[in-house]
Amino acid sequence: MFSKILIANRGEIAVRIARTAREMGVRVVAVHSRPDAGAPHTEAADEVHGLPGDTSQETYLRGDRIIEIAKACGAQAIHPGYGFLSENAGFARACADAGLVFIGPPPAAIERMGDKILAKRVMEAAGVPVVPGWSSGAGAGGDAAGDAPDDGIDAIRAAADRVGYPLLVKAAAGGGGKGMRIVERDHDLPAAVAAARREAGSAFGDSRVFLERYIPRARHVEIQVFGDLHGTVIHLCERECSIQRRHQKIIEEAPAPGLDPAMRRAMGEAAVRGAKAIGYVNAGTFEFIVDDAGTYFFLEVNTRLQVEHPVTECVLGLDLVRLQLEVAAGLPLSIRQEDAVPRGSAIECRIYAEDPARGFLPSTGRIQLFEPPVGPGIRMDAGVRSGSEVTVHYDPMLGKLIAWAPTRDAAIDRMHRALTETVVLGPVTNTLFMRDVLDHPEFRAGRTHTKFLEEHGIVARAPVPDARALIAAGIAALETSADGRGGGADRAPGRRASGGRTVDAPWAQLGAWRML
Questions:
Q1: Rounded to whole angstroms, how far apart are CA atoms 427 and 361?
Q2: What is the pTM of this model?
Q3: Which residues are catalytic?
Q4: Domains and their CATH numbers in the chain
């Protein structure tokens, strides 16, 4: 096992990886931007190094600087988390060239699955069902198909007629909904292709697009896979990720409700075949869409640890980060396929600093008070605390709230209570909106799909502070008025320096808040 690793990430995922590594006796190195100095992920590490700059481009996306730090401090491996450099084949290759282990899949697997068109061709050859579509022209490396600059709109229109409307125009190097357009009729196709090419070129430096049949009201079901360096590949069951806004998941659960056992088995076997076809190692996720008829189609592979991995951990009793470290160190997988049997039900809600009532606009500022819920079956993976600043530089996800219970109904009830008890004073969050989703009878019945929010017209309500929040806000205001700055993260609860002496701070009155 490694003696020291560097975590090339921030926020809750960096805290979560550090926790497991330190439990395993592995020393942890954290990196941080200027705005993240003193952030929770730096305190979760044994060693901390600053990255000069504020933005992601200046800091967490600077693979060269991160590798230099790793080599200088004697780290043997780099864990990329998710986002940033996690699916960057060039960074994975640079780690290997520097004598560092990249805790993830081989660069070739990242490269092949990063090109959505090539990925579809590889999966189709491996016997994995893919969504009918069209692509043309030479792609990355000369072996991937995608639209070429000389693919005129007439040729694309003819292909669209064969695929059938409605259809999707998608970016070959896409992700997160970027470079994707839904086209309902032929008249709208030229503008959609042009817009998708522009957006894809700007976001990924690759303007190739392809066509794919659009499946309305589809379920989004994914399979967690794991491979080791000894040729073993298994799947760790499925997750339902259909509750989305702007193509971004916000609520996930495991296992997927109402999935036929035969289909569950077939999807797992298909994911394993696909993983073996690309020589997959470490953690990865095969994403599928399921239509109304119960037919599943391959969508893409995420070549990294997923945001929603905790629900899989909860129902299987596993630590996926531990498995990642063990596999990266050359150890064989410590779990067999027959051992991956889910128990109970787990739901994850992503807590964002955003205002659902204003079109989910990000909400920034200081978190005056952060109080996560506690109780049996409740887990909070957070990257903030009281006093943290939410800035414009990074994704506004504050953390992930997970609830486990013996049944799905009990897990929903437990999650609803946990959301109610989650206190974030300062930036607006989406906790009330997610409670409204959980309250919907169709969600309770397990009848979810990717257009769930739009179809059921779940409209965000403006949050109304309860008595607890009002008292806590008053306490925060008293602290702010005392020194003009507020209670920072470097202050001990209940005591604060003022005018050269230590005095009782209003935070000590939180006992009254807790009693309400």
A1: 11
A2: 0.87
A3: 304
A4: 4-103 (3.40.50.20), 106-129+216-343 (3.30.470.20), 132-213 (3.30.1490.20), 344-464 (3.30.470.20), 467-515 (no CATH)
